[in-house]
């Protein structure tokens, strides 16, 4: 990642509710970090909300230990299409990592980038962690 693509921690964090009840060891939490060139918080929130809504918790046996995290690096094009999405950090659970990637892909297409945004795309890192 270039210096120009330094990430800005979006003021977006929420605990994504578990769809399967009964797992006392932890719960999923989603955070999104946008490239610092995109300062439109409304766009950031809308994008975050789309991924949170697309999240599907895998079976309880697939949940990694508390503190584990999957990072999905995504590039959203000017028109809102998902140009790429890859898992850049794994949690130790293939099912959990696949669920994180599926949420980012399933939320696409995203809204077009704001008209005032002058770059052809924006990079976003989605962190799906297991918290107590």
SS-based class: alpha+beta
The helix-strand sequence is EEHEEHE
Note poorly predicted spans.
Answer: 1-24
Oligomer: single chain
- How far do the termini sit from each other? 31 Å
Number of strands: 5
**Molecular shape:** elongated
Strand content: 25-35%
CA gyration radius, whole angstroms: 14 Å
- Count every helix, treating DSSP H or I runs of 4 or more residues as helices: 2
Largest sheet: number of strands, sense, barrel closure:
5 strands, antiparallel
Average predicted local confidence, pLDDT: 85
Order of strands across the main sheet: 1-2-5-3-4
Helix content: 10-25%
How would you describe this structure to a colleague?
With 132 residues, the protein is α+β, with helices and mostly antiparallel strands. It has a domain at 38-71 and 82-115. The chain is 20% helix and 35% strand. The protein has helices spanning 41-54, 94-106; strands spanning 7-15, 27-35, 69-77, 82-89, 121-131. It has a 5-stranded antiparallel beta sheet, with helices on one face. Strand 3 and strand 4 form a beta hairpin. The longest helix has 14 residues, at 41-54. The protein is elongated and about 45 Å long. It starts with 6 loop residues before the first strand and ends with a strand. Mean pLDDT is 85; it is low at 1-24.
